[in-house]
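Good morning,

Attaching, inline, the backbone tokens for the sequence recovery test we're adding to the shared suite. The designed sequence is right after.
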């Protein structure tokens, strides 16, 4: 509330000169402070605080009968080891002198540079990325609605011919590299990936390659 106090300006006598009245202003800030605290309390109680974010990691279901395991089409396997070492191979793993008479698998070294894992994923995942780009154009031109767009995106990512990434690590690898690889997969929109155990034959090849 604001108050204005008016003082007597004099000039009561017949011959006394009348002076201008002086006034003093006092502003009561109590209502404004009350309002500020009420607004502050309102926003604190109605605001959504930052929620902890969790990273989704897919683990394959444990199969009791290994003979019925299905082969993975269009797969790439990343293997993490010491000193930030990252190796990969394409397709199935074939040890030397395998029963299928296939050439033995060789590991290729890569890294987290722009020309490393990122470029590798974009090249291998190009057909799916091209299909997603077409869906983006259709969605932006309002040919399809939001729910249909999301459903079609998930279908493209989960297509049986889409790239599947397997992540493996030995006991010398660091956790940060695994997280960095999963981040890269999310950046490249890879929909099918899983963290799996390393086979003894893979570990043996890794030890020979990473001497």
């Amino acid at each position: 509330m604001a108050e204005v106090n008016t003082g007597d300006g004099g000039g009561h006598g017949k011959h006394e000169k009348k002076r201008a009245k002086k006034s003093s202003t006092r502003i009561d800030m109590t209502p404004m402070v009350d309002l500020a605290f009420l607004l502050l309390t309102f926003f604190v109680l109605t605001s959504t605080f930052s929620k902890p974010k969790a990273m989704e990691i897919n683990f394959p279901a444990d199969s009791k009968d290994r003979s019925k395991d299905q082969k993975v089409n269009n797969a790439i396997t990343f293997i993490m080891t010491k000193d930030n070492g990252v190796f990969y191979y394409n397709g199935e793993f074939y040890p030397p002198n395998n029963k299928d008479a296939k050439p033995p698998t060789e590991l290729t070294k890569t890294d987290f540079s722009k020309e490393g894992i990122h470029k590798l994923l974009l090249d291998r995942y190009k057909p799916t990325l091209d299909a997603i780009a077409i869906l983006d154009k259709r969605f932006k031109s309002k040919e399809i609605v939001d729910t249909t767009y999301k459903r079609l995106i998930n279908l493209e990512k989960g297509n049986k011919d889409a790239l599947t990434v397997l992540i493996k690590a030995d006991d010398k690898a660091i956790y940060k590299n695994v997280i960095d690889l999963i981040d890269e997969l999310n950046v490249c929109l890879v929909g099918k990936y899983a963290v799996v155990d390393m086979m003894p034959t893979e570990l043996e090849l890794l030890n020979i390659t990473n001497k």
